[in-house]
Amino acid sequence: MACAECESQNLESEIESEVIGRDTRVRVTDTTRAPFRFICKLLGEKGGCSGTLIGPSTVLTAAHCTKGRASCMRVIPGRNGTGEPFGSARGTKFVTFPGADIAIVHLDAPLGASVGYWSRLHSLHKDDPIGTSIAARLPLPAGMLKINLSGYPGDLPAGKKFDCLGPGRHALCGKFQYRAYDATVRRAGRMLHHLDDTYRGHSGSPVWVRRHPSLGGRVLVGVHVAGSEPGAKRKTNRAILIDAEILKFIIANTK
To answer: What is the pLDDT of residues 183-196, one digit of tens each?
Structure first.
Protein backbone atom coordinates (compact mmCIF):
# COMPACT_ATOMS: atom_id res chain seq x y z
CA MET A 1 0.00 0.00 0.00
CA ALA A 2 1.35 3.43 -0.92
CA CYS A 3 1.93 5.90 1.90
CA ALA A 4 -0.56 8.38 0.45
CA GLU A 5 -3.21 5.67 0.44
CA CYS A 6 -2.59 4.53 3.99
CA GLU A 7 -2.57 8.13 5.25
CA SER A 8 -5.90 8.84 3.59
CA GLN A 9 -7.55 6.17 5.74
CA ASN A 10 -6.65 8.15 8.87
CA LEU A 11 -7.95 5.44 11.21
CA GLU A 12 -7.06 5.84 14.87
CA SER A 13 -5.84 2.41 15.95
CA GLU A 14 -4.83 1.67 19.53
CA ILE A 15 -5.90 0.01 22.74
CA GLU A 16 -9.13 1.61 23.94
CA SER A 17 -8.70 4.84 25.90
CA GLU A 18 -11.13 6.64 28.13
CA VAL A 19 -12.92 9.95 28.48
CA ILE A 20 -13.71 9.78 32.20
CA GLY A 21 -16.83 11.74 33.11
CA ARG A 22 -16.87 15.29 31.74
CA ASP A 23 -14.43 15.72 28.88
CA THR A 24 -11.75 18.16 30.06
CA ARG A 25 -9.48 18.08 26.99
CA VAL A 26 -8.54 21.48 25.54
CA ARG A 27 -7.36 22.11 22.00
CA VAL A 28 -3.83 23.45 21.59
CA THR A 29 -4.43 26.38 19.26
CA ASP A 30 -0.76 27.35 18.86
CA THR A 31 1.28 24.21 18.24
CA THR A 32 4.41 26.24 17.43
CA ARG A 33 4.99 26.88 21.17
CA ALA A 34 7.02 24.58 23.43
CA PRO A 35 6.41 21.85 24.38
CA PHE A 36 3.60 21.34 21.84
CA ARG A 37 5.94 21.88 18.88
CA PHE A 38 7.85 18.73 19.93
CA ILE A 39 4.67 16.61 19.99
CA CYS A 40 4.03 14.73 16.75
CA LYS A 41 1.18 13.18 14.84
CA LEU A 42 2.25 9.71 13.67
CA LEU A 43 0.52 8.41 10.55
CA GLY A 44 0.91 4.83 9.36
CA GLU A 45 -0.71 1.92 7.55
CA LYS A 46 -3.21 1.17 10.31
CA GLY A 47 -3.91 4.65 11.57
CA GLY A 48 -2.53 7.36 13.78
CA CYS A 49 -0.84 7.80 17.15
CA SER A 50 1.13 10.49 18.93
CA GLY A 51 4.78 10.82 19.89
CA THR A 52 7.45 13.24 21.07
CA LEU A 53 10.69 14.41 19.51
CA ILE A 54 13.50 13.61 21.99
CA GLY A 55 16.44 14.12 19.63
CA PRO A 56 17.21 15.57 16.21
CA SER A 57 16.07 12.35 14.48
CA THR A 58 14.30 10.49 17.31
CA VAL A 59 10.69 10.19 18.46
CA LEU A 60 9.47 8.49 21.65
CA THR A 61 6.09 6.74 21.42
CA ALA A 62 4.15 3.63 22.49
CA ALA A 63 5.41 0.34 21.05
CA HIS A 64 1.96 -0.69 19.80
CA CYS A 65 1.95 2.44 17.63
CA THR A 66 4.78 0.97 15.55
CA LYS A 67 3.09 -2.34 14.73
CA GLY A 68 2.13 -2.70 11.08
CA ARG A 69 3.80 0.60 10.21
CA ALA A 70 7.25 -0.52 9.10
CA SER A 71 6.64 0.34 5.45
CA CYS A 72 4.85 3.62 6.02
CA MET A 73 5.03 6.13 8.86
CA ARG A 74 4.93 9.90 8.50
CA VAL A 75 5.87 12.00 11.53
CA ILE A 76 4.47 15.55 11.73
CA PRO A 77 5.59 17.74 14.67
CA GLY A 78 3.13 20.40 15.80
CA ARG A 79 0.46 19.38 13.30
CA ASN A 80 -2.52 21.73 13.49
CA GLY A 81 -5.34 20.54 11.22
CA THR A 82 -4.09 20.93 7.67
CA GLY A 83 -1.15 22.97 8.93
CA GLU A 84 2.28 21.34 9.15
CA PRO A 85 4.39 24.25 10.43
CA PHE A 86 7.63 22.25 10.62
CA GLY A 87 7.18 19.83 7.75
CA SER A 88 7.41 16.07 8.24
CA ALA A 89 9.76 13.09 8.05
CA ARG A 90 9.48 9.34 7.53
CA GLY A 91 10.10 6.73 10.18
CA THR A 92 12.91 4.45 9.02
CA LYS A 93 13.61 2.26 12.05
CA PHE A 94 11.66 1.20 15.15
CA VAL A 95 13.37 0.07 18.37
CA THR A 96 11.11 -1.48 21.02
CA PHE A 97 11.90 -1.70 24.73
CA PRO A 98 11.53 -5.32 25.91
CA GLY A 99 8.83 -5.79 28.51
CA ALA A 100 7.05 -2.44 28.22
CA ASP A 101 4.90 -0.63 25.64
CA ILE A 102 7.66 1.86 24.74
CA ALA A 103 9.41 2.41 21.40
CA ILE A 104 11.81 4.72 19.62
CA VAL A 105 11.29 5.84 16.00
CA HIS A 106 14.30 6.95 13.98
CA LEU A 107 13.57 9.49 11.24
CA ASP A 108 14.98 9.99 7.75
CA ALA A 109 15.55 13.70 8.45
CA PRO A 110 16.76 15.61 11.55
CA LEU A 111 13.52 17.51 12.21
CA GLY A 112 14.52 18.16 15.79
CA ALA A 113 17.55 20.16 14.72
CA SER A 114 15.21 22.97 13.61
CA VAL A 115 12.05 22.25 15.64
CA GLY A 116 13.81 21.50 18.92
CA TYR A 117 13.05 18.48 21.05
CA TRP A 118 12.31 17.29 24.56
CA SER A 119 15.83 17.19 25.97
CA ARG A 120 17.03 14.58 28.47
CA LEU A 121 18.94 17.11 30.59
CA HIS A 122 17.20 20.37 31.46
CA SER A 123 17.41 22.65 28.46
CA LEU A 124 15.87 26.00 27.62
CA HIS A 125 14.71 26.48 24.04
CA LYS A 126 14.10 29.69 22.13
CA ASP A 127 11.12 31.59 23.57
CA ASP A 128 10.74 28.99 26.35
CA PRO A 129 11.81 30.18 29.83
CA ILE A 130 10.63 26.92 31.47
CA GLY A 131 12.49 24.28 29.46
CA THR A 132 12.26 20.50 29.33
CA SER A 133 13.94 17.45 30.84
CA ILE A 134 13.37 13.70 31.24
CA ALA A 135 13.36 12.01 34.65
CA ALA A 136 13.45 8.41 35.85
CA ARG A 137 11.25 9.06 38.87
CA LEU A 138 8.08 10.88 39.88
CA PRO A 139 8.62 14.09 41.88
CA LEU A 140 5.63 13.18 44.09
CA PRO A 141 3.90 9.85 44.79
CA ALA A 142 1.01 8.79 42.56
CA GLY A 143 -2.22 10.02 44.12
CA MET A 144 -0.64 13.32 45.12
CA LEU A 145 0.60 14.31 41.68
CA LYS A 146 -1.13 15.99 38.74
CA ILE A 147 0.17 15.40 35.21
CA ASN A 148 -0.08 16.93 31.75
CA LEU A 149 -0.70 14.96 28.55
CA SER A 150 -1.02 16.14 24.94
CA GLY A 151 -1.50 14.40 21.59
CA TYR A 152 -3.84 13.71 18.70
CA PRO A 153 -7.13 11.97 19.68
CA GLY A 154 -9.24 10.61 16.85
CA ASP A 155 -12.64 11.57 18.31
CA LEU A 156 -12.07 15.33 18.05
CA PRO A 157 -13.00 17.97 16.91
CA ALA A 158 -16.51 17.41 18.23
CA GLY A 159 -19.80 18.32 16.58
CA LYS A 160 -21.98 17.31 13.66
CA LYS A 161 -19.74 19.09 11.19
CA PHE A 162 -16.90 16.66 11.91
CA ASP A 163 -18.83 13.50 12.95
CA CYS A 164 -15.55 12.01 14.24
CA LEU A 165 -17.35 9.07 15.85
CA GLY A 166 -19.78 8.45 13.00
CA PRO A 167 -19.86 7.18 9.42
CA GLY A 168 -19.37 10.67 7.97
CA ARG A 169 -15.99 11.15 9.64
CA HIS A 170 -14.37 14.41 8.51
CA ALA A 171 -10.85 14.42 7.06
CA LEU A 172 -9.70 16.72 9.91
CA CYS A 173 -10.63 14.26 12.68
CA GLY A 174 -7.54 13.35 14.68
CA LYS A 175 -5.40 16.09 13.16
CA PHE A 176 -5.59 18.66 15.96
CA GLN A 177 -3.61 18.49 19.18
CA TYR A 178 -5.47 18.31 22.51
CA ARG A 179 -4.05 18.50 26.02
CA ALA A 180 -5.37 17.37 29.39
CA TYR A 181 -4.37 18.00 32.99
CA ASP A 182 -5.60 15.85 35.86
CA ALA A 183 -4.67 13.69 38.83
CA THR A 184 -2.71 10.49 39.04
CA VAL A 185 -4.41 7.64 40.91
CA ARG A 186 -1.86 4.92 41.63
CA ARG A 187 1.33 3.28 40.46
CA ALA A 188 1.64 -0.42 39.72
CA GLY A 189 5.21 -1.23 38.77
CA ARG A 190 5.93 0.66 35.53
CA MET A 191 2.25 1.51 35.02
CA LEU A 192 0.87 4.87 36.13
CA HIS A 193 -2.92 5.07 36.39
CA HIS A 194 -4.22 8.58 35.78
CA LEU A 195 -7.39 10.59 35.07
CA ASP A 196 -6.34 12.65 32.04
CA ASP A 197 -9.01 12.23 29.36
CA THR A 198 -7.78 10.43 26.24
CA TYR A 199 -9.05 8.60 23.16
CA ARG A 200 -7.71 6.43 20.35
CA GLY A 201 -4.89 8.36 18.72
CA HIS A 202 -3.58 9.70 22.05
CA SER A 203 -1.34 6.64 22.48
CA GLY A 204 2.32 7.63 22.54
CA SER A 205 1.53 11.08 23.98
CA PRO A 206 4.06 12.50 26.42
CA VAL A 207 3.10 12.62 30.09
CA TRP A 208 4.85 15.36 32.04
CA VAL A 209 4.95 17.35 35.26
CA ARG A 210 5.46 21.09 35.10
CA ARG A 211 8.03 22.25 37.66
CA HIS A 212 10.18 25.31 38.27
CA PRO A 213 13.10 25.58 35.82
CA SER A 214 15.50 24.93 38.70
CA LEU A 215 13.76 21.54 39.17
CA GLY A 216 13.75 20.53 35.51
CA GLY A 217 10.95 22.64 34.03
CA ARG A 218 8.55 20.41 32.10
CA VAL A 219 9.70 16.99 33.28
CA LEU A 220 8.76 14.08 31.01
CA VAL A 221 7.89 11.14 33.27
CA GLY A 222 5.97 8.73 31.02
CA VAL A 223 4.20 7.79 27.80
CA HIS A 224 0.43 7.27 27.55
CA VAL A 225 -0.45 3.78 26.29
CA ALA A 226 -4.00 2.67 27.16
CA GLY A 227 -7.34 3.09 28.88
CA SER A 228 -8.80 1.10 31.77
CA GLU A 229 -7.83 -2.49 32.46
CA PRO A 230 -10.58 -4.95 31.47
CA GLY A 231 -13.00 -5.37 34.37
CA ALA A 232 -11.56 -2.50 36.40
CA LYS A 233 -13.99 -1.13 39.00
CA ARG A 234 -12.71 2.40 38.54
CA LYS A 235 -11.95 3.87 35.13
CA THR A 236 -8.45 5.21 34.70
CA ASN A 237 -6.08 5.74 31.82
CA ARG A 238 -2.61 4.24 31.86
CA ALA A 239 0.89 5.45 31.08
CA ILE A 240 4.25 3.68 31.12
CA LEU A 241 6.56 5.39 33.59
CA ILE A 242 10.12 6.16 32.58
CA ASP A 243 12.33 4.34 35.09
CA ALA A 244 16.12 3.92 35.16
CA GLU A 245 16.08 1.04 32.66
CA ILE A 246 13.80 2.83 30.20
CA LEU A 247 15.86 6.02 30.51
CA LYS A 248 18.99 4.00 29.72
CA PHE A 249 17.19 2.61 26.64
CA ILE A 250 16.20 6.13 25.58
CA ILE A 251 19.77 7.44 25.92
CA ALA A 252 21.22 4.50 23.98
CA ASN A 253 18.80 4.91 21.07
CA THR A 254 18.55 8.68 20.69
CA LYS A 255 20.03 10.11 17.50
So the answer is: 999 999 999 999 99
